[in-house]
Amino acid sequence: MAGEEQLRDESTWFGIRKHGGSVGVTFNFVENFAHSGQKTDGSDWQPLNAHLRAVAALAERFARESFGDASPLGDLARAAGLLHDLGKYRVGFQRHIRDLAVARPETYHKQFGAVEAALSRNAQVSFVVQGHHGGLPDSADWENVWRNGEYQRELATIRPIAERDCPELAALKLLPSQAGDLRKQEFETRLLFSCLVDADWSDTAAHERACLGLPPFATAQPPEFSTWLENLRQFVANCAQNCPEQSMRDIRAEILCASLNAAETSPGFFSLTVPTGGGKTLSSVAFALRHIEFHNAGAPKLPFRRI
């Protein structure tokens, strides 16, 4: 890939225009990229605006398929998708992706969408954008980012560039988070996080596969929940045979039975509190499969805790 010396001898390269001489060179990025590709002319690189639009559409689709069109999570997921890589409009990131020397902090990008959402007083979107690399932050880390004056000042610089390149950002009207049940809001934030991370990885993987000449991922086949539940029951029975302590086998069987019984109650929010070693992972999966089977309903939503 071309280095900085080569760049200085050209008028444009990868959509960069050079201004000035070899000292104090400044760059105008005619095209901003989200991901690189295999070709050195940049022809198979992914434009940043295309990535933002694709992730926004996917995240919104995942949210609406899971929670229905009436849920506000669809609009929030779309907003998170548009904002998640806002910081890639930074000059530092665009130099970095072109393999030009830049200090690592100048490549940071998740912080800027998080700041933008926080300044709109939408904590849910801000949390998931800041967490889409590395996992959801705690409240202290989140506040340290969005209250950072340097991030806010640079956001004011890159926002006009981003809005020209991706007009959907200019049209975005992100409403403040509504006061309400904090436990429900936390759960919804984790679900929103799941939609964003899934959308981001899906679009990034699709780009990478196209660059490598690989076919798209195959469409998943419809799940056979009843068969899966029977297979799980057999797996649990085999595990129990290998447990030497009768008391532990009895406790795990009791937890599994309680989970299966709870699966036949009305849909809603459920939690399972069991010490390590009690079989809560398998019991939770059994609950989910039985709940689907009993109610002939869609799959229960289990949000990512950390990516």
The end-to-end span amounts to 31 Å
Helical content (DSSP H or I, runs of 4+): 55-70%
Question: Count of DSSP E strands?
Answer: 5
Mean pLDDT: 85
Query: Structural class of the helix and strand makeup?
Result: mainly alpha
Low-pLDDT segments, ≥5 res: 1-13, 16-27
Q: What composes the largest sheet?
A: 3 strands, antiparallel
Shape: elongated
Give a verbal description of the structure:
- The protein is mainly α.
- It is 56% helix and 5% strand.
- The protein has 13 helices and five strands.
- The protein has helices spanning 4-8, 48-67, 73-83, 91-97, 110-119, 123-131, 139-146, 149-165, 167-171, 182-211, 225-241, 246-262, 280-295; strands spanning 12-13, 16-19, 26-29, 33-35, 46-47.
- Strands 1-2-3 form a three-stranded antiparallel β-sheet, with no helix packed on it. Strands 4-5 form a two-stranded antiparallel ribbon.
- The longest helix has 30 residues, at 182-211.
- The model is unreliable at 1-13 and 16-27 (pLDDT under 50).
